[in-house]
Amino acid sequence: MNELASNAFKYAFDTLPTEAARLELELFETASNKVSLRIKDNGKGLPEHLVPEQSSSFGLRLVNTLSRQLDSTLSLMREGGTSYQLEFERK
């Protein structure tokens, strides 16, 4: 998650005034007893042509590796910024 937060500060907010930039981190248990971890920014969003699962970016490769290690579902939303969500079984 550090990589996603770091990427938001580096890339997402370069067109926003500092006081308008928002980064949210949520950790909660779902109704189906899974753990959900979401990090969301209100920045400019990822380019449509970027496919995170196929990215050569070290940071995105780390996120994909974490997702596999947790046997999680990794979701990406591109509306109103960028939001990544990992959902995995509670152990």
| Span between termini | 20 Å
Q: Biggest sheet, open or closed, and with what strands and sense?
A: 4 strands, antiparallel
What average pLDDT do the residues reach? 87
CATH class: Alpha Beta
* Adjacency order of strands in the biggest sheet: 1-2-4-3
Structural class: alpha+beta
Number of helices: 2
User: What portion of the residues fall into strands of 2 or more residues?
Assistant: 25-35%
Keywords: ATP-binding, Kinase, Nucleotide-binding, Phosphoprotein, Transferase
Domain Histidine kinase/HSP90-like ATPase: 2-89
Pfam family, one: HATPase_c
GO molecular function, one term: ATP binding
Features:
91 residues; globular; protein histidine kinase activity; histidine kinase; HATPase_dom; EC 2.7.13.3; alpha+beta; Heat Shock Protein 90; single chain; ATP-binding
Description:
Its EC number is 2.7.13.3. InterPro entries: HATPase_C_sf, HATPase_dom. The chain is α+β, with helices and mostly antiparallel strands. It has one domain: Histidine kinase-like ATPase, C-terminal domain (Heat Shock Protein 90), CATH 3.30.565.10. The chain is 25% helix and 31% strand. It has a four-stranded antiparallel β-sheet with strand order 1-2-4-3, with helices on one face. The longest helix has 12 residues, at 58-69.
